[in-house]
Write a sequence for this structure.
DNA sequence: TCAATTAGTCAAAAAATTATGACTACCAAG
DNA sequence: CTTGGTAGTCATAATTTTTTGACTAATTGA
């Protein structure tokens, strides 16, 4: 039984991969970024419950995973834009698959914890 | 500016959803389960680094999210099988999208943390 | 009766994630 | 020269997740 049953052989790098997109704010930030470059303050206004620190952490993680790129824009009130990278763009189908689910809960449902 | 700029409107129930499939062991367990019913000890052997408690937690979470179903099999050495539910099956495309990524890291890479 | 296999439970500790609140630095307008 | 907007940092605290190590309980075989 121990030697006979070959058992299922599947590696599990999904853990690592999913980590890139999970956490309290990363999924949201990622999705915003798929719609075009986003700015720090903009994200902050979209996610009023998030603290600056929380957003900074999330953005830095996405950045170091090479999913988003941080660009300082040398304009009037000097701001920062976050863009999806090529790699980031490759992640979009994952989110599309998530959104294709029937049972996608509403924000309210998700909050009822 | 506050009233003018419509900003991007996207809800973010993805956080909730991704949570169902994340954590240290849930992604792996889920993927094993997509290949057919899995038993507790089998998972434990596939993921030798995981503790019983860790696996139990993960399984209970998947169960209470209605992603897997726990079935006690009344046979010789009385065991337990975990099956994907209908809802669980709906999650498969998400994993397929993940696995379709070019940069899927190997276990080794993922472990180099 | 002792040991092994099945599949866990439990309380506590450790580790990882997230939040808090204060502070920084640049630039522009009043 | 003070306020407001940009985008953060920092040390610490609270919370959540995961691990540790001991223990349970039913059944089977020696």
């Amino acid at each position: 039984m121990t030697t006979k049953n070959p058992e299922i052989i599947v590696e599990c790098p999904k853990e690592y991969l999913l980590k890139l997109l999970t956490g309290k704010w990363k999924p949201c930030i990622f999705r915003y970024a798929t719609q075009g470059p986003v700015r720090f303050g903009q994200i902050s206004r979209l996610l009023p419950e998030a603290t600056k620190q929380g957003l900074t952490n999330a953005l830095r993680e996405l950045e170091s995973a090479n999913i988003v790129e941080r660009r300082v824009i040398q304009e009037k009130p000097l701001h920062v834009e976050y863009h999806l990278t090529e790699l980031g763009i490759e992640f979009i189908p994952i989110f599309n698959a998530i959104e294709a689910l029937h049972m996608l809960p509403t924000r309210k449902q998700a909050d009822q914890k």
